Amino acid sequence: TEIDILNRLVKDSKRAHEALPLSRYLEKIAQLGGYLLARSNDAPPGNTVVWRSMRRLADMQPGFSLACDRYGIGNRKIEDTVTRGARQRIECIR
Question: What pLDDT does 74 receive?
Fold first, then answer.
């Protein structure tokens, strides 16, 4: 379910479409922790950013599971407020 959460919260960048899946998801995880993709010459995300991102993702996962259990069965769509006040549609997939 963590991959589902990442796919819904973090959009793929242009270079992520061309990257291998491991690199793509490392970039998505790093973005949750504050890593910016503004410049192509930046160093890869460090340990602190990845750790912060993993903690944040681990905190989101139980809430996402509870929302799916309570409001969605199958492919039913629910609206949820996510970080930074952005409104996004989250589909609960089982």
Answer: 40
DSSP the chain: -HHHHHHHHSPPPHHHHHS-HHHHHHHHHHHHTT---S-TTSPPP-HHHHHHHHHHHHHHHHHHHHHHHHH-STT-EEEEE-GGG-EEEEE---
* pTM, 2 dp: 0.66
Residue with tokens 């796919």: 7
Stretches where the chain sits below pLDDT 50 are: 73-90, 93-94
Distances (CA, A) of 7 to 13, 41, 43: 12, 25, 23
pLDDT value at position 54? 93
Q: How many CB atoms lie within 10 A of CB 32?
A: 21
CA 60, CA 55: separation in Å to the nearest integer?
A: 9
